[in-house]
Amino acid sequence: MGTADSGFFAGQRRDVDARWPKAVLWDMDGTLVDTEPYWIETEYAMAEKYGGTWSEEHALNLVGNDLLESGNYIRVHMNIDRTPQQIVDELLDGVVERVQQSVPWRPGALELLADLRANDVPCALVTMSWQRFVEPILGHLPADSFGTIVTGDRVEFGKPHPEPYLTAAAALGVAPEDCVAIEDSNTGAKSGVAAGCLVLCVPHHVPILEGERRVFRDTLLGMTTAELAHLQLP
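^ that's the sequence the OP posted. Answer follows.
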């Protein structure tokens, strides 16, 4: 993936030919945890409660989006008399309750996160979910899992804007082009690419389009820090 001074660095590691990422920036919903079904269940419950209409297609259109934008989309397409802020607050109540009962980790995610920590590669969590939803998930992880947390209520512009990933890289003190972002949605991949990251795309609920600075894997199972260092652009 280029030379040692154009992107990843070659440190004194087991594999001297590898270009190790200076940081790994993790999306959360659908990447670290499979909470999209929790959001969708809560959306359908809201439609039933307020006499609105909803569909799987509408639900999947929201994957990876900023929460207030999603709240406005729900207000319009569900056709309910609630403000975007009220909708987001009620959505968060529902998914937080579900996460407190069970955290559905994505296959291979915890193992890769632990391997990165063991190899002193800093990580950030970059999610459009808000802090009060993120906190119960972080409570199940070692305290040093993430060097910084960027949530949707911390940035002015959410994904697909580059601000979330630029904010995370800056907080870790690294250049975004030296980072790998891990994403499960096209919206998130756009954000990572726009920031300058190499994006490891692991599609789950929605497809991700081919594009520049995107590499694809079917799963994080078996993925290691060393394998991240060998990711190659097509």
